[in-house]
């Protein structure tokens, strides 16, 4: 058996680093300078396999050249089966922090555009006995807010972790409760049942609001339940739905709080940190932390006010408090911190209003047909009124040119909404849904003038509705950006990190492989 010490190991990598990957005039190719018996100096094309003996007797490493979006990397596909070779392979995987992966990959001046290298495995835990995920949500943290002001702590997570390059895509409607519950269940709102912040079940006539913890409303399987079902501990310091008793999850007082927005953010962070001081067997594998900002400010003053900048700076300080708490405990590199938001925020002004009363020449819409006005117009006509007739009359009026801003509202039968919104397959969704254009608001009648402010809930295709995704920890590659993705994918990311079986959901089962480093066994 060949045992390598770290010095030899470094030599091994120096040898490997002689493989130079390049992107020549848009054509992805790899040049092998030397160290490969087969190719000599010629370019290896994407898809080609390269063997290297690495100077170690009887060990042959087979690499696969993979080029994605103009970036090539080597993927170790196999090592000849002998104990010594496996040892080399294993150390290679573990040694991510002892060498610069860029030196091996030789791809570009920065690691920031690299996909996670499949050569590398997740780092081993040093201190914690099991993987831990802390999922932090900052309400209304629009993608880009992190650049409003110096955010050294968020930037640290980004530079040493994995970020969704142009933000996290919320589900439709881009509202707080539907999105938080999609993040935690991996389901679109039509399937997890929380189709809005408030809505009516037409079968029973019952109303849902944000203080309703009756489990009949909350469908799907939230992560805390999945975790507890499999014999692990979960803890929540606020998250929509976390107070709801469902199956194995009873919101135990030791690990779960009833929402109270007056609880200081610092207390929320410190409580999560204190769970990590528990006896090993009690440390939760999964924890949620909810922060109400900068949504609270965004609604009052819009996304471009100094109050937002201040709120973002405060969120960064809280992230810093979390990082230093983890560092003090010697577990910052062991814990997976996932920082997300539920949706973005866009400015709204009085001149961007649509008044339903102006539709009177075409249709009179009684107030009691309307469940919600804006920015998602939800209309449930009584059973004796044909919904498609209502839609036709409303759209005729909106398209007449006689309704102020009429062209900025489109009204649909829910089954005719764009399928990418996944917003039809539930009785709780009203038969008629109107989509207001970015920043527009729908009201019944002209009301008192008001200041410009902020709103969300619009089509999730608007960039202004995006939030952030940053992952830091053993299974996240460092300094890597991944293409933006929908927040329903997060459920599978967490179950993959925790190595537990997840419930069925709308996420893609192969998605974690694209974002996470392979598990280190
Ligand atoms: Zn929100």
TrEMBL record:
GO terms for cellular component: vacuole. Residues 1-26 form the signal peptide. It comes from the Eukaryota. Coiled coil: none annotated. One of its GO terms (molecular function) is hydrolase activity. Keywords: Signal. InterPro entries: Alkaline_phosphatase_core_sf (IPR017850), Phosphodiest/P_Trfase (IPR002591). This is Uncharacterized protein. It comes from Daucus carota subsp. sativus.
